[in-house]
Structure formats: C-alpha cells, structure tokens
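step=encode ok
step=design start
structure_in=
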C-alpha cells in the first residue's frame, strides 16, 4: 500500500518534548536519592505531558553512561563538583550532540519542540538548582549546560523547564502553563 492509498488522515501529534532519562526511569538515579513518592516514574509530570498529546523523547543519562551502565546504575550520589571532570564533560558533550542532532531533524521536518525538561539538583540535568555542603546554589547541570550551548550555536531556541521533586506543585504549574501556551500557538 502506498501513502496515496491511505484513506484515514494522519493523526500524529506534531509536538515533542525532551525529558531527562530518570523522569520515566527512576532506577537510573543515584542510589539512595529516589524519594518524594515516585519510585519508578514521576507520574504527575508524565501525565500532564500525555494529557497534552505530546511525543516524549527520553534524553540519555550521562551519569549512567560514565564508566558504563553497570557501574552507572550502582553509583552513589555526588555533587556537581565531583562530576566536573574532562571525562564527564566529554560524555555530556557527546550526549548533547546526539540530542541536538535529533532536535535539528525534528525541526527540519516541520515539527515543534515545546520544551526540554530537566531535574533540579541533578549534576547532569538541572536547569538551575544544585546542592552543596553550604546549601542550594544556581547552576545548570553539566549536560544541560552543554545542550544549551550547542543549541545556541545552532540558533535554536527551546524553553527549558526544571522539575523539582520537592516542589512538584510549582513545577507542574509551570509546565502546565507552558504547554497550554504552546498549544495555543500551534495550528496542528
């Protein structure tokens, strides 16, 4: 059967959202930090995305890639300063290149990317918040920093939204507002 013989119109969603690997796979988090009632999937965020009929693309987990997945899945929690190494930056750079290439292909085919999500306090995927011995401070994760840089070089602007598991109501409200605005802008 050829495309011209298909009678039913194509009903695919033309909108995409990129999410951190651990948003739908909490087992990839560092040992001992999965709390706040989400043992496998951060359900409120995923449910909101599904409610808006948005295609979900799971970004790679640089922390799990470092040293191979077997070691990555057994890792303990570490702050961003422990990950700030040339080896980890290279892993993040490669991962960001993969995501950037996918984003460029999606946009080239007239699809829309509504957002890129991150997980706050992640040394890799935080949008703006990190932990330290002295408290919370503002800094993107190393992977997100690399991704933002590569997208800027390509002149691609996409909203970034940080998901804070401790502040789920606020994160959900911010995501809901963004997705509602994006939907109103589209004629798909």
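sequence_out=
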């Amino acid at each position: 059967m050829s495309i011209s013989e298909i009678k039913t119109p194509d009903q695919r969603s033309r909108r995409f959202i990129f999410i951190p690997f651990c948003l739908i796979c909490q087992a990839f988090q560092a040992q001992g930090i999965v709390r706040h009632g989400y043992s496998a999937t951060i359900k409120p965020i995923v449910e909101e995305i599904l409610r808006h009929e948005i295609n979900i693309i799971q970004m790679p987990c640089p922390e799990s890639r470092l040293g191979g997945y077997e070691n990555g899945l057994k890792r303990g929690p570490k702050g961003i300063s422990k990950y700030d190494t040339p080896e980890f930056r290279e892993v993040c750079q490669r991962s960001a290149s993969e995501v950037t290439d996918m984003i460029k292909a999606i946009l080239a085919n007239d699809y829309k990317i509504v957002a890129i999500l991150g997980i706050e306090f992640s040394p890799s995927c935080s949008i703006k918040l990190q932990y330290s011995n002295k408290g919370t401070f503002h800094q993107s994760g190393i992977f997100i920093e690399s991704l933002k840089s590569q997208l800027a070089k390509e002149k691609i602007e996409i909203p970034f939204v940080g998901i804070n598991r401790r502040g789920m109501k606020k994160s959900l409200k911010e995501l809901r507002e963004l997705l509602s605005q994006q939907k109103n802008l589209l004629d798909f």
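step=design ok
step=annotate ok -> Residues 15-120+132-181 form a domain with the Rossmann fold fold (CATH 3.40.50).
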